[in-house]
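Exercise 7. Given the encoded structure of a 155-residue chain, write a plausible sequence.
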């Protein structure tokens, strides 16, 4: 029980501003855990999507179909198993193997990391260009040039 209270206090310290105005009695530890797990699930789905976008063609057709049904079509293991004519455990193993394979490709090639890095740098350039429209200045152009040089080095 002490651990739950500690986790609840941590939750309120971190997310207290978000739930400002909501009575604490409505924010039970289970509420906090469910919402935190939803955020984690969403982050995991986004990561799986990026990995599939970059490396999905390296999976065979059967693996792609099962992975797409699970990640993109949000089908349950049972639904996929019935559709493919295999067991739920077979589907779970296939998804686990596909995820490991996609992660292994990323560890070796770093395409997703490079893409996200460049995306971040382009967003910085976009923001700086907007600031430059409002207050034209030489300093902004120097920053844009430095960021664009970094992008060119990464290519």
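Solution.
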């Amino acid at each position: 029980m002490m651990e739950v209270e500690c986790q609840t206090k941590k939750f309120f310290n971190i997310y207290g501003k978000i739930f400002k105005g909501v009575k604490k009695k409505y924010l039970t530890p289970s509420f906090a855990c469910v919402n935190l797990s939803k955020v984690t699930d969403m982050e995991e789905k986004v990561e799986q999507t990026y990995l599939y976008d970059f490396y999905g063609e390296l999976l065979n057709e059967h693996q792609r179909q099962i992975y797409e049904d699970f990640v993109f079509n949000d089908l349950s293991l049972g639904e996929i198993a019935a559709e493919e004519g295999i067991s739920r455990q077979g589907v779970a193993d296939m998804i686990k193997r596909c995820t490991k394979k996609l992660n292994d490709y990323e560890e070796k090639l770093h395409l997703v990391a490079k893409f996200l890095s460049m995306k971040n740098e382009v967003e910085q350039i976009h923001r700086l260009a907007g600031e430059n429209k409002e207050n034209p200045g030489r300093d902004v152009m120097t920053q844009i040039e430095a960021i664009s040089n970094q992008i060119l080095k990464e290519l």
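Remark. The chain has a mean pLDDT of 79. Students should compare their own answers with the one above.
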